[in-house]
Structure to design on (152 residues):
């Protein structure tokens, strides 16, 4: 019999710390390099030990760029990866943008000034729903990334 899995720390520890770091790194007043313990601990609402553990995990995963002291302890975060920006919500994700597109199409259908426009937006919203979230996310990934398939 194998031991039980470890408790999830992504949603309870690592993601809240990543979001706090992203918010601080993105603010101009910090110059892009907040002090990990001086700025992240209060902003995260977590105990110092949890922030340190999260920072180590985030650094090992490549989400944050740490600056360490001579003992190897993380003292500053000097930057975050593009994926960290997406996970923290600073940059778009294909899934999130697909959901926004669906919302916009539905809202425009509801608020269209004429029946003709309302029908067109409704048809667009219905077609987008029919495409589904998986294909829609792939479509938005192409748009976010700037890739447009060529017609043959």
């Amino acid at each position: 019999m194998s031991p039980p899995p470890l408790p999830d720390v992504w949603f309870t520890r690592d993601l809240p710390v990543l979001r706090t770091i992203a918010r601080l790194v993105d603010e101009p007043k910090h110059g892009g390099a907040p002090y990990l313990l001086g700025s992240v601990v209060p902003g995260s609402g977590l105990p110092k030990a949890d922030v340190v553990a999260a920072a180590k995990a985030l650094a090992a995963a490549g989400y944050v760029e740490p600056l360490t002291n001579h003992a190897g302890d993380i003292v500053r975060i000097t930057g975050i990866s593009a994926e960290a920006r997406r996970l923290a919500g600073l940059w778009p994700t294909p899934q999130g943008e697909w959901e926004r597109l669906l919302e916009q199409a539905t809202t425009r259908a509801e608020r269209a000034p004429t029946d003709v426009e309302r029908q067109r937006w409704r048809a667009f919203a219905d077609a987008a729903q029919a495409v589904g979230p998986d294909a829609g996310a792939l479509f938005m990934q192409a748009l976010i990334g700037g890739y447009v398939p060529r017609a043959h």
Remarks:
- Strands lie at 64-68, 74-80.
- Residues 94-145 form one domain.
- Helices lie at 10-26, 36-44, 48-60, 82-88, 94-111, 115-131, 133-145.
- The chain has a mean pLDDT of 88.
